[in-house]
Amino acid sequence: MRAVVRQEPPVRHGYPPGRWKLAAIRAAIPGLAVYSLSGISRLVRRAGLRLKRGRLRLHSPDPDYPAKSRQLGRILALARQYPQRITLLYADEVSIYRQPSLAATWAPVGVEPTTTQIARSNTVHRVCGALNATTGQLSWITAAKCTVSRLKTFLRTLRTAYPDRWLFVVWDHWLPHRHAEVEAEAKRLHLHLLFLPTYAPWLNPIEKVWRWLKQEVVHGHRLAEDWEGLKQAVNAFLRQFDHPSPALLKYTGLCPD
Questions:
Q1: Residues 225 and 109 in one domain
Q2: Which of 50, 102, 120, 140 is deepest in the core (most CB within 10 A)?
């Protein structure tokens, strides 16, 4: 029974392919047809199975995924071995919107918590950030739009922060990252751009920084009427990581074993 539920649900028995149900388990295993659903329920518990909420899993279609992943691992190992000479930065952008996003919050039983939107355009605040893989320090700039010009400025910011290092910057395949002017600026600054496998955000730990930012500041915020106040709150959160942060390394899973 445990082996069966690790497979896809049995479409050949006439059940939808979405998920396992007691009737589908009964149909998939010879000899269980005589059991009632309540009997199957008792059997699955005795087999050590429980009804669980699933998790979404992404799959990168990049045929070079193994090679690119190994390359990132090698450079991370070198950055840890020679921290005064080699720096690896995980870079990305995030959008912060005027209108609050929804998330779970504590509230009295019988009371539905609400978050107020306003009748104005959903203005956006963009953050370009780079996470130092060995220190947890965060380098960042903000703008209304993340243009090619702003990305070039961001690369100059990174080189200024690390003037005498071999500097590797990990990015995804967003088109402006591969713009000819951006790549030329990186070459001029002696920055080595490393591109993630396509559709593989789990290989970029700075995604967890954005998650933390949204959990602490963005979800359910009460600053839709105070756009400058919201931007200041975002910047204050980021500013706490302007220096090396073991806490951020731990949160993003970058603490070495």
A1: yes
A2: 140
| CA-atom Rg of the chain in angstroms | 24
Assigned domain for 53 exists: no
Residue 168: phi and psi, rounded to 5, are -110, 130
Residue 257 falls inside a structural domain: no
Closest CA to 205 of 249, 244, 140, 236: 249
Q: Answer yes or no: do 35 and 114 share one domain.
A: no
Residue (of 46, 53, 54, 37) closest to 25 by Cα position = 37
Same domain, 122 and 239: yes
Summarised one tens digit per residue, pLDDT across range 28-73 is: 888 898 999 999 999 999 999 988 877 777 788 999 999 999 999 9
- Alpha helix (H) residue ranges in the chain: 22-28, 37-46, 65-81, 148-161, 180-188, 206-213, 227-239, 246-251
Q: How far is CA 50 from CA 27, 55, 120, in A?
A: 18, 15, 46
- Closest by CA to 242, choosing from 116, 165, 135, 168, is 135
Q: Which domain holds residue 33?
A: 4-46
The model's pTM: 0.82
> Is 51 part of a structural domain of the chain?
no
Half-sphere exposure (CA, 13 Å, Cβ side) for 59? 2
The closest of 140, 153, 125, 136 to 217, measured between CA atoms, is: 125
Structural domain includes residue 145: yes
